Amino acid sequence: MIATLQHWLGRYSYTLAFLVLFFLWLWLRPEAPTQVYQLDGATMGTRYQILIAGFPESVSDQELADGIEQRLFRLDRELMSTYAPDSELSQFNRSEPGQWVDVSPELAYVVHRSLHFSDMTGGYFDVTVGPLVDRWGFGPDQQGSLSWTRIPDQAEISRLQSQVSYQALQVSLQPPRLRKERDVKLDLSGIAKGYAADVIADYFDSVGQNSYFIEIGGELRIRGLKPDGSAWVPAIEKPEDGVPEIWAVLNTQGESLGIAGSGDYRNYFEEDGVRYSHEIDPFTGKPVTHQLAAVNVIADDALTADALATAFMVMGEQRSAELAEQHGLAAYFIVKSPNGDGFEARYTSRFAHYLEEAP
């Protein structure tokens, strides 16, 4: 999990609606060009926080706020939500196998990129794994809804695995459309938040806003410097329950970056002394059992960082580190100590560039 260092605790206590925050942003705007402005709201079943240094001259405060809201609403409710029954994703999930379904360029692009990461990771990133996630009680509205044991037997796991296959998906970018060869269902929660951060970043770039910190559900897109000339300061969270603690501080050096993290320390359950993570291995159909507690990835865009952080958390540290080094990726792993007492940090050579101070 990653957040701004200066707003470390604040991001866990959002209480104001988007409209209220917008008017606070508008009314409190001073004349001095050195202010950092903050906007918070809800999207994709989570919260977002946006910080910008000054305002571009090409748009008004309201236009900028409206532009953010409209884009996030479209990506969530109209295109990629599994909750909204009329979203493009929900409609595709209900479609019959074998038929091409016309979709937006945005949805086709995200599915196209998803399949790329599936191939890259050998299938550990799979946007069709939802049936297994749901059965283990980690899906939408699943917790507490099971009338029998939360742990499925092997026969049920095998049956659900037959519904999981990214290879059953086909995508066309021109024209934008999707097809499934059998009845699989898509869940883009492991990549869509990163993409949303990229969309807002592209919007800011288009209107001349060149210094920003965008956080959507823990996935970041950062560019530029703050008014005092310092870089935006993300921090890696220590992988433990309770009050968030800082594990490591990152130096973004003013670069345009996407940053994402994933971990098993906040979403899990225990039964008969065994801890079950929400990270489901599509090859076993079960929660992962390796010692990787958290992973953070830095890339040129948040979509890439989001997808790889999700995949690496399923793959485990050894496979992930080898793949990351092979592709020159910046990845940071927090691994449980062999004796179970504490954690150890490991990172790729590319990630060292962003460490404020190597632990």
From TrEMBL:
It catalyses: L-threonyl-[protein] + FAD = FMN-L-threonyl-[protein] + AMP + H(+). Mg(2+) binds at residues 190, 306, 310. It is an enzyme of class 2 (transferase). The keyword Cell membrane does not apply. Its EC number is 2.7.1.180. Its cofactor is Mg(2+); Mn(2+). The chain crosses the membrane at residues 12-28. Keywords: FAD, Flavoprotein, Lipoprotein, Magnesium, Membrane, Metal-binding, Transferase, Transmembrane, Transmembrane helix. Magnesium. Can also use manganese. One of its GO terms (molecular function) is metal ion binding. Belongs to the ApbE family. This is FAD:protein FMN transferase.
